[in-house]
Write a structure and sequence with these properties.
Elements (H helix, E strand, L loop, with lengths): L2 H24 L8 H24 L3 E3 L4 E3 L1 H27 L7 H18 L3 H19 L6 H32 L4 H9 L5 H19 L7 H8 L2 H8 L1 H17 L4 H24 L4 H21 L10 H29 L15 H4 L1 H15 L5 H15 L3 H30 L12 H19 L2 H16 L1
Length: 494
C-alpha cells in the first residue's frame, strides 16, 4: 500500500477513529446534555474541516487504493463545507435534542459522524462500488437518526417511508451501475469513460443503464417525480435530523452526480442532459406550486428544496452544447455555487425553527412565527435574510446563485435553454410569494404567544454568523464563485 493512498483518506481515517473513540467515551458520560461527547465531536469535525481546507487549497489531484479513491480540489472543498455544515447542525440541534430526550445515549453524535464519513466516501469515490458504499453508509445512518425519537409515532412513520423509498433508490442506482459494469467491464470511473468514448459499446445498453442511474440520483436529490419522500420525511423527522438530511448530504448528492455523469459518462451527455432537463422542469413546477399550499413550515421548506434542486439540475444540464465543452466549467461551477449557497441558507432557516421550538412545542407551523420581530428581532432578521435569499432577491447569496445558473443556460445560445431559463424565472416569481408570506407573518402579524426565545450565547453567535454570511456572500460573491469555478476546471482537466 503506497503512502499516497493513505494521504488521500487521512481525513476519513481521523473521522472514523474519532467516531469510535467518542462512542466509547460516551459510555462514561452521565450528563443529560452529553457535554463531553458534544465538545469532542465538534473538535473532531473542526480538525477534519481544516484538514480538508488545506488539501483543497493545495489544489493537487491524486488517486489512492488502485484508483478507487480520488482527492481533488472539488471533492476537498465539498468535504470541508460538509464538515462545517454538520458542525453547525449539531450546534443548533443539541438544545432541541436534549429537551426531547434524544440524547439519552450519544447515538445522535456518533450517527452524525458516521453519516459524514458516508458523505466523504461518496464525494471522493472514483469507483462504482466505493460510491455505493458511501451512499449506503450515509443512508443507513440517516434512517437511524430519523427514528431516534422512538416514542414518537410521526418520526417512526417518517423513518419507515424514508427506509422503503431510500432502499428503492439504492436499488435503482445499483441496477444502473451493474448494467454499465456489464457493458464496459470496469467499475473504475475513468476506465468506464474511456470505454464509452471508444464507441464500441452498444449505445442502447448504455442508455438503459443510464436511465436507472439518473433515477437513483434524482431520488437522492429529491427531484420530481422521485420527490415523494421529501415532504413526509422533512415534516415527520425531528427538526434537528431534518437539517442533517437537508444540509450536508446535498453536497454529496451533487458530488456523485458530477462523478458519475460528468467524469464517467460525459460522452453520453446529450442523453442524460435531456433527462435532467425533464427532472429540472418538473421540480421547479411541482416544488413551487405545492409549496404555496403549505401551512407547515418544514413541509414548505421541503417543497422549496425540491424547487431549489431543480435549479441545480439546470446548471448541470447546460454543460455540453452541441458536443462542445466550452461552457462546461462555467455551468458546473454555477451548480456547485448554488448547492453551497443553498446549504448555507438552509442551515440558518432550520436553525431558527430549532431555536423557536421549546419543550412540548415544535414551532413548525408558519403561524408560530407570528410577531417574531416584536420579541426577537435578531431571529426574525436572520429568517428574513434566509427567505429573501431562497426567493432569489438581491443582495442575498441566493440571487447570485440563481443568476449564475441562468447565465449558464443563456450562454449556451440554444432556443430550448432560453425557454427553460424564462420558465425558471417565472417559477421563481411564484416561489417569491410563499417566502415573502413568512416574512409578512413575522413582521406584520400579531404574536400568538408572548414567550421570549432564549438560546445560549454560542448558538446565537453561530446563527448570527450564518445569517451574516448569506448577506455578505450575496454582496461579495466573487471569492466563492471563483473557488467553485476553479475546482470544477481542475476536475475537468484531470
Amino acid at each position: 500500500m503506497n503512502k499516497i493512498s493513505w494521504i488521500a483518506v487521512y481525513p476519513e481515517v481521523v473521522l472514523l477513529v474519532m467516531a469510535c473513540v467518542i462512542a466509547l467515551v460516551d459510555l462514561r458520560v452521565t450528563s443529560p446534555r452529553r457535554t463531553l461527547t458534544y465538545v469532542l465531536t465538534l473538535l473532531t469535525l473542526g480538525v477534519v474541516a481544516v484538514m480538508q481546507a488545506l488539501y483543497a487549497s493545495g489544489g493537487e489531484t491524486f488517486y489512492g487504493f488502485g484508483n478507487m479513491v480520488v482527492s481533488d480540489a472539488m471533492g476537498n472543498w465539498l468535504k470541508c463545507f460538509a464538515a462545517i455544515a454538520m458542525m453547525v447542525t449539531l450546534v443548533y440541534g443539541r438544545p432541541y435534542a436534549a429537551s426531547r430526550d434524544m440524547l439519552r445515549g450519544g447515538e445522535m453524535f456518533t450517527l452524525a459522524m458516521f453519516s459524514l464519513i458516508g458523505i466523504f466516501v461518496m464525494i471522493s469515490g472514483n469507483n462504482f462500488l466505493v460510491i455505493y458504499l458511501g451512499l449506503e453508509l450515509l443512508t443507513l445512518s440517516s434512517y437511524a437518526l430519523v427514528a431516534l425519537r422512538r416514542d414518537n409515532a410521526t418520526a417512526t412513520e417518517a423513518a419507515m417511508k424514508y427506509f422503503v423509498l431510500g432502499a428503492m433508490a439504492s436499488g435503482f442506482l445499483l441496477y444502473g451501475l451493474s448494467m454499465l459494469y456489464g457493458a464496459t467491464g470496469s467499475l473504475d470511473i475513468g476506465a468506464v469513460s474511456q470505454a464509452v468514448s471508444s464507441g464500441r459499446i452498444n449505445h442502447q445498453v448504455l442508455v438503459f443503464g443510464l436511465v436507472f442511474i439518473v433515477a437513483g440520483l434524482a431520488f437522492k436529490l429529491g427531484a420530481v417525480p422521485f420527490h415523494m419522500w421529501v415532504p413526509d420525511v422533512y415534516q415527520g423527522a425531528p427538526t434537528a435530523v431534518t437539517l442533517m438530511i437537508g444540509g450536508a448530504p446535498k453536497l454529496a448528492a451533487f458530488a456523485i452526480v458530477i462523478r458519475l455523469l460528468v467524469e464517467g459518462l460525459l460522452p453520453l451527455a446529450i442523453d442524460w442532459q435531456q433527462m435532467l432537463a425533464v427532472l429540472a422542469i418538473g421540480s421547479l413546477l411541482v416544488g413551487n406550486l405545492a409549496a404555496i399550499a403549505q401551512t407547515n413550515l418544514k413541509r414548505m421548506l421541503a417543497y422549496s428544496t425540491i424547487s431549489q434542486m431543480g435549479f441545480v439540475l439546470l446548471g448541470l444540464m447546460s454543460g455540453v452544447v452541441n458536443g462542445n465543452m466550452l461552457s462546461a466549467a462555467n455551468a458546473y461551477g454555477a451548480s456547485m455555487f448554488y448547492v453551497v449557497s443553498y446549504v448555507l441558507t438552509t442551515l440558518a432557516a432550520f436553525g431558527i425553527i430549532l431555536l423557536l421550538a421549546r419543550e412540548g412545542f415544535e414551532s413548525e407551523e408558519i403561524t408560530d412565527l407570528a410577531g417574531l420581530n416584536q420579541h426577537s428581532p435578531l431571529y426574525a432578521g436572520v429568517m428574513a435574510i434566509c427567505m429573501l435569499s431562497m426567493a432569489g432577491i438581491p443582495p442575498m447569496v441566493g440571487f447570485y446563485a440563481k443568476l449564475s445558473v441562468l447565465q449558464a443556460l443563456i450562454a449556451s445560445g440554444q432556443a430550448f435553454y432560453m425557454g427553460v431559463a424564462l420558465f425558471a424565472v417565472f417559477m421563481s416569481l411564484i416561489g417569491a410569494f410563499y417566502y415573502l408570506r413568512v416574512i409578512k407573518v413575522m413582521y406584520f402579524d400579531a404574536p400568538i404567544t408572548a414567550t421570549t426565545v432564549s438560546a445560549s450565547t454560542h448558538v446565537r453567535v453561530v446563527l448570527s454568523i450564518n445569517g451574516l454570511l448569506v448577506l455578505v456572500l450575496g454582496i461579495l460573491p466573487g471569492g466563492l464563485m471563483t473557488l467553485c469555478a476553479q475546482a470544477i476546471m481542475k476536475m475537468l482537466g484531470t
